[in-house]
Design goal:
There is one protein chain. This protein is α+β, with helices and mostly antiparallel strands. It folds into two domains: about 35 residues, no CATH class; about 120 residues. Helices cover about 65% and strands about 15% of the residues. The protein is built from four helices and five strands, in the order E-E-E-E-E-H-H-H-H. The strands form two sheets. The protein has a three-stranded antiparallel sheet with strand order 3-4-5. The protein has a two-stranded antiparallel ribbon with strand order 1-2. It is rod-shaped, with a radius of gyration of 35 Å.
Length: about 180
């Protein structure tokens, strides 16, 4: 006949009889599964859920460590791109300083500025002058056409990089727990 040990279920408080060779069992009262831990003559019960949480926490930390590495690399690529966009914004601000203040910065006025620059290009071409200003005017007109979508592009980019920074902070928090 096997020796029984009487224990109390840590989940429901029910009385349990277990044999000395059992390592895992299900409580007949509440249905929760437990691990039997023996150490130095002491027998204790640990809910299996607690052990699974430890495994899950380990997996979460490992996944977060991998995510941190990936996110740091992605952010390091995005930050120079953001700097480039901000430089473009600075260039646009410089361009707007060249035109009347009452024109403001909106789509209609960008079209007005492009029109003025294109007329200047035509005037320079009619005179058949080899004027360095012609190249600048052409580049400026091209930049203005390219930057019409810059505010939206910049906003989307900032949202993207901030989302990555938020994810990074979340994963760093998981790893540091």
């Amino acid at each position: 006949m096997k020796d029984f040990v009487i224990l109390t279920c840590p989940s429901c408080g029910g009385k349990l009889q277990i044999t000395s060779d059992i390592e895992r069992f299900v409580c007949a009262n509440c249905g929760n599964e437990h691990l039997v831990q023996r150490s130095g003559g002491i027998i204790s019960l640990v809910p299996l859920v607690a052990e699974l949480r430890k495994v899950r926490d380990g997996v979460d930390k490992t996944a977060s460590e991998l995510a941190i590495k990936r996110l740091r690399e992605e952010i390091s690529v995005l930050e120079p791109e953001l700097e480039d966009l901000l430089d473009e914004v600075d260039e646009v601000n410089e361009l707007y300083r060249l035109f009347p203040q009452d024109w403001g910065v909106d789509e209609d006025n960008i079209d007005k500025i492009i029109s003025v620059l294109e007329k200047e290009i035509q005037n320079l071409q009619k005179r058949k002058e080899n004027n360095p200003l012609q190249g600048w005017v052409a580049r400026t007109s091209g930049k203005l056409k390219a930057i019409e979508s810059l505010p939206e592009e910049l906003r989307d980019f900032v949202v993207k990089i901030n989302d990555k920074r938020f994810q990074l902070a979340k994963h760093e928090n998981i790893v540091n727990q």
